[in-house]
Known about the structure:
Number of strands: 23
Structural class: alpha+beta
Number of domains: 4
CATH class of the largest domain: Mainly Alpha
Shape: globular
Radius of gyration: 29 Å
Distance between the termini: 70 Å
Oligomer: single chain
Number of helices: 13
CATH topology of the largest domain: Neutral Protease, domain 2
CATH architecture of the largest domain: Orthogonal Bundle
Amino acid sequence: MSRSWLAGFPEFTIELSTINKPTVGDPNNKISYSFADFPTEAENLYRGFLQRVWPILYDKLGPPAESFNCVITNMGESSGYFMITNGGRKFLSDTDFIPRLIVHEFVHAWKGSYIFTSNENWEYDDALSGFEEGVAEGMAFEIIHEYVRSYPNDSATLQLLDWRPYQYWSSRTTFYDSIKYNRWTGAGDFWTHTDGPTSRYSIAATTFQFMMKENQNAYKEIMQHYFAKITEDPLWRSNREDILDIWSQSVPSINGIPTKIYINAIPVFQGHKLNEGMYILNTVRPYGITGDQQFATSYVLPDGQVWWGALKTIMESYNIPSWVNYYDTDPPDNYYYINTQDQPFTVAITNTMGDSITQIATRSNLLTSGEWNLGFGWKMVEDADMENLPLGLYKETVTFNNYIQYDPGAQEDFYVFGYSGLNQDRENDYVIMMGIDGVVDGFVTLLVDSIEYTEPIINGAAIFRSQAWPFDLEGKVNITITDAEQNQHTYYRTLLEAGTLHSYFQTQFIIIDKNFDGVEDVYWIIDADGDGIPNHNDPDDDNDTVLDNADVCPVGVINWSPSRSTDNDEDGCLDSIEDQDDDNDGLSDKKKMSLVRIQLKKIRIMMVWRMVGK
């Protein structure tokens, strides 16, 4: 039956343009919460904490992306669930009360449907997980710290302080400099098997906490920019470059390095899964005055995952090299498991002068069925325990002998501190360990909380100790290094409220500047024009004599000389290669050539008609 007659009645006419569309990140947006299937005692514990932390969430995060109710759903006692789904509308949890994880998930929920993702359906994006998880984890620690300051006698506060290395600070923040460049910490699924998740979360979280120390409103400003892009173009999805642009707007630099360059050097933010091939797996664990290390190796599959087990049904499609061993279980299951057990490898340890300290030859473990890390053969190398090395900074080169001939990824360098001779009073001392690879003799001056402290460089390290520094000391540290010839350069690091796994308040900073030119070596690789000045210090990155602040193509064709014939509009872009609008009139050269061809065609037609007319 046709109902077209309804159109004649104004009562059934709706003017859609007058309906207010919800605005992403509107200042009036609110999130509420309710509980499903929670026992009364657990629900009361959650409710009490959420009521107190809720004002801090709004203060630190600003308005949420959307207004909605989040249903906190019990998935079973100690089930291990802590996950936000349905665009923030559902929080899958268990009855365990872990304040930091609760806050972490609500930071995710604050974005609603609009997480950092390139997926058209706003689904989780492994490639951008470094950004998404780093923000959630970093802000969770910032919020938890504020909670403890706001409610010092609360039961949740006492629990957080009792679990400090696991819930009150990121367990690897204190030795962030030792792990932030490790290859296997690259992006992709954060939950690859073994120790990967802990390092990835810690590196990403610590980096974002540094950004918050640069600008206390960084999170809110970043999300305002992010929500504005979504509002402007609902079809837009985030990508790595756009996220870096947004982050850089609010935080132009991190530790004295332009934000984009700083982030580009850290694998966890690389924006794609790991490349196929061999990787050294390592775990370094400084406890305070002792520490140990474990090593293993694995092969990363074509899908970017650190291989532990792979489905038999798709194994053939991977085309794994014949020199990579894997095995079936007995009785068989649905997976093939990598086998890098019982493999010979060496740990060559040198000091910062390049002198060999020791070369440890050992083998990865041969494990039995039922072990959780069956396949990798993780090996604790006791001879490399930190208390066995004299106090100082060391470089370790780890090489898996049977694989290096096939894949250079079977070898990697790491830096570690020796602890022998270090004493620290855990209850009273705050220790900053400065490692320097680039200056043998000299001294280091730290500017901490507006006060200068100076110590000599001995065996690649300068050790600072104070009982006057509060354990919640945070902020920028200026590090001035002076060599024996009185050459001097200043670097920067950030202190966060954190300690070791055994609750020693100790932070390790490492500066690698082997030619001691004032630029850490990792940033030297970004020198577009090869003039010896890294881009972030170079006013003319492509050496075309047009300064970057006036150059439309700042990193373009290298080492050319602009002139009227090569750069007609003087915009810094080489006309023949880079410039699509040589005279800068708003019409692309291609469009103008098309118009010229049309005009010439018209002229030819007119000439033909005149000839015919004659």
